[in-house]
Specification:
Layout: H1 3-26, E1 30-36, E2 39-41, E3 44-48, E4 52-57, E5 63-67, E6 74-79, E7 84-88, E8 95-100, E9 107-113
Parallel strand pairs: 1-4, 3-9
Antiparallel strand pairs: 1-2, 4-7, 5-6, 5-8, 8-9
Bound molecules: copper (II) ion.
Copper (II) ion (CU) binds next to loops.
């Protein structure tokens, strides 16, 4: 292969890899948090903005998942054992506190990297 062809091929490959890494960065990650024995497991999570968190009730009692974090309010209402909900963390909040309206000692702290 001629040197110029080699250079063009190399540049094309670099560009393709660059585009691939941009696409890979934009792809949201999915995390799963369970509720077990009246606790969120894990109770802390660090994610990137736009990532998805699935909250699943693995307990033998209902929970009521809510966030009173000012710019990221949500209320999943009563969540029965075995039920799960998906939350997309598209928020400018850097720390979201997820609690339970039934069991006020339950707390999940989600750090959202911007
Ligand atoms: Cu609860």
């Amino acid at each position: 292969m001629s040197p110029i062809r080699t250079a063009i091929r190399s540049a094309a490959l670099t560009l393709a890899l660059g585009l691939f890494s941009v696409a890979a960065q934009a792809e949201p990650a999915t995390y799963t948090v369970t509720q077990k024995n009246g606790q969120y497991v894990p109770s802390t999570l660090t994610i990137k903005r736009g990532d998805i968190v699935i909250i699943r009730n693995d307990d033998n009692q209902p929970h009521h998942v809510v966030s009173y974090t000012p710019h990221f309010l949500f209320d999943l209402d009563l969540q029965a054992p075995g039920q799960e909900n998906k939350i997309v963390f598209d928020t400018t909040e850097k720390l979201v506190v997820v609690s339970c309206d039934i069991h006020h000692n339950m707390e999940l702290l989600v750090t959202v990297q911007q």
